[in-house]
Amino acid sequence: MIVQEGKVHLFTKSRRNYNTVHYTVNTSNNVADKIETFDCKGLITGASLSPDGKLIALVGYDLRPFIPTVFCWLLWDWPAGTDQFFAGNKRRIELGTALQIGQVESIGFATDRAAYLSNERTDFNGVTIVDESIWSVDFSAWVPETVSANEP
To answer: Is the pLDDT assigned to residue 11 strictly greater than 70?
Structure first.
């Protein structure tokens, strides 16, 4: 979930179709209103909005390959004055396998283009494959500092 301009945005994960559904919470009646659906090709487990409000990062994992993978979707330049985040630019960044990274569960921006990811400990038959940890990632190679959001 992220909060933008006082509005709560929720992103779901679906093991059935590997899509995410984007909802906003209507604070007058506490009902989640469906905004859009996106085929993210994985299970979204975390979201964050950059401090400048111009970049959204969604992290997750895909269990379908023989070795599950970890990814991050970057969203920017969505249409001005809308909550249609998936209508703008999108870029998927493969972060590695779950055997390297673990099961990613959250993301939080430290600066406008750098963030921290965290993962759960991954065990198999009582053996720890990956310890829980925090990872840093710099998105500036994929998204320039000058991207726009909510502007024509």
So the answer is: yes
